[in-house]
């Protein structure tokens, strides 16, 4: 169980929840602020002043007053009407992360929800009741309305949820877990669905996987460098520090560390007639370093957003209830667009390394398409083509979403962020990237082995040994697709730098 401090959750905690499904709950000290805010809302609901979402309608209907006796019906209707998503359900690990982020937001004590509501959300996480949330339907303002309404629908006994591998009605899932639906009080439905938690969870998932794959790309890039008998000189520290970008410095240091002790390097250090390598080898510190810096920048943004209060209206310290726009997910949309750029570029330079390795005109003595008997065998010929197709898909998907606003809700919400699908596309982009890097891993290891009896560095040799226990070398053509898929899963699920002496931190 992870204890969450509102406003101070770490990316490590959130990644644990995403990858491992570890349940989480707020620290006990969060309750007094939550209770106080709920009391403020109760007083407002009983008072005579119009307070948006408490005793008024929503959006364009904000001028319509709601009688105190109808406040619960108002909140229930809000959830039912806004649960309008379509498309395939988000994965359970994503939904658990959404629920956790909503806990963090409510835990700041500025939303006005009752502790009973917060506790049900915590119990759902603890007992594995995971709402079915369709992936499409949010424009990223006024928050992720449709997805979060599907989450909240389960809490009131509506909608659907996964529980112990079954897809049940929301009410049946709660009962099966020993829980009961709640009746929403004033503003509670609005507090639940206003917010950027769906967009932010998707962006965090995209970030976590992109960071792992960026580190993997340094491993596959090091292997490709040795397979192509590339020069190590471009990785020297002096070059990187003259420019000064931290990501570049870190990327070059990791490449030096991974390649330390390579016999292949020593074999051509003195008598290589080539003056310079192609950019896909030589400029790895510059390209990968820029990607590391970009991902770290987005990590800072998403870390702030994960701990933010993003519903509306909000209760501030003097008990004023203020309408604002924290639900607008522009920071998340920008972050998602930047992550998409990094994912695309990591794949683009990796694909060029694959193309180099299979081309005998560029690979410095390796056989065509990395097969010992080219002609009779095609080797990695079409695996390289597959990597090119995936690279092209990611280039297209990297087009910015944040600039594509459109008015909604009768022009009340006349500028929206498009953060939700900006972030959701990162999941598919990362899968594409994992397959590109999986193909590079197999190609580069094949190339290194074709340099035998010379060996690469001890660290890379250890990695090759692990890989070969799962996927054998390609001696003759065989049915390749399952092994390419397996290699893609391998690089997405494994931290290939876990045993490295030097580690790359997402938030240094």
TrEMBL record:
Residue(s) of cross-link: 5-imidazolinone (Ala-Gly): 141-143
Catalytic activity: L-histidine = trans-urocanate + NH4(+)
Main location as per UniProt: cytoplasm
Gene3D superfamilies, alphabetized: Fumarase/aspartase (Central domain) (1.20.200.10), Fumarase/aspartase (N-terminal domain) (1.10.275.10)
UniProt xrefs under CDD domains: PAL-HAL
Pathway: Amino-acid degradation; L-histidine degradation into L-glutamate; N-formimidoyl-L-glutamate from L-histidine: step 1/3
Cell compartment(s), UniProt: Cytoplasm
HAMAP family in the cross-refs: His_ammonia_lyase (MF_00229)
Protein name (database record): Histidine ammonia-lyase
Native source organism of the sequence: Maritalea porphyrae
Gene: hutH
């Amino acid at each position: 169980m992870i204890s969450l401090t509102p406003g101070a959750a770490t990316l490590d905690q959130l990644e644990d929840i995403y990858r491992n499904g570890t349940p989480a709950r707020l620290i006990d000290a969060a309750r007094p602020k939550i209770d106080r805010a709920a009391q403020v809302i109760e007083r407002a609901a009983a008072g005579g002043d119009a307070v948006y979402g408490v005793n008024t309608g929503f959006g364009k209907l904000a001028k319509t007053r709601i009688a105190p006796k109808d406040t619960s019906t108002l909140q229930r209707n809000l959830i039912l009407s806004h649960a309008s998503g379509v498309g395939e359900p988000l994965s359970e690990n994503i939904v658990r992360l959404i629920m956790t982020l909503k806990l963090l937001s409510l835990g700041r004590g500025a939303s006005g929800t009752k502790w009973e509501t917060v506790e049900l959300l915590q119990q759902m996480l603890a007992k594995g009741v995971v709402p079915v949330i369709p992936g499409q339907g949010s424009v990223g303002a006024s928050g992720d309305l449709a997805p979060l309404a599907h989450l909240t629908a389960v809490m009131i006994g509506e909608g659907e949820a996964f529980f112990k591998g079954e897809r049940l009605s929301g009410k049946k899932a709660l009962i099966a877990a020993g829980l009961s639906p709640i009746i929403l009080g004033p503003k509670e439905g609005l507090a639940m669905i206003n917010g950027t938690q769906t967009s932010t969870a998707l962006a965090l998932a995209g970030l976590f996987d992109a960071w792992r794959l960026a580190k993997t790309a340094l491993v596959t890039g090091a292997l490709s460098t040795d397979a192509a008998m590339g020069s190590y000189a471009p990785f020297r520290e002096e070059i990187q520090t003259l420019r000064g970008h931290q990501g570049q410095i870190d990327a070059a240091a990791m490449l030096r560390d991974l390649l330390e002790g390579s016999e292949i390097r020593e074999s051509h250090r003195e008598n290589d007639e080539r003056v310079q390598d192609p950019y896909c080898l030589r400029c790895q510190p510059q390209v990968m370093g820029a990607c590391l810096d970009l991902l770290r920048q987005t990590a800072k943004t998403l870390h702030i957003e994960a701990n933010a209060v993003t519903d509306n209206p909000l209760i501030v310290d003097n008990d004023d209830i203020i309408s604002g726009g924290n639900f607008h997910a522009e920071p998340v949309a920008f972050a998602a667009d930047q992550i998409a750029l990094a994912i695309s570029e990591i794949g683009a330079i990796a694909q060029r390394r694959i193309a180099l390795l299979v081309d005998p005109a560029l690979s410095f003595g390796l056989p065509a398409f990395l097969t010992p008997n080219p002609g009779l065998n095609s080797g990695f010929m079409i695996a390289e083509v597959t990597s090119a197709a995936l690279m092209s898909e990611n280039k297209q998907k990297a087009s910015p979403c944040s600039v594509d606003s459109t008015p909604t809700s009768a022009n009340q919400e006349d500028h929206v962020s498009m953060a939700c699908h900006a972030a959701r596309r990162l999941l598919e982009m990362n899968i594409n990237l994992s397959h590109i890097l999986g193909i590079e891993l197999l190609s580069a290891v094949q190339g290194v082995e074709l340099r035998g009896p010379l060996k690469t560095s001890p660290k890379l040799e250890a990695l090759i040994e692990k890989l070969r226990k799962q996927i054998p070398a390609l001696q003759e053509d065989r049915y390749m697709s399952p092994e390419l898929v397996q290699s893609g899963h391998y690089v997405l699920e494994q931290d290939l730098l876990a045993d490295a002496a030097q580690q790359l931190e997402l938030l240094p």
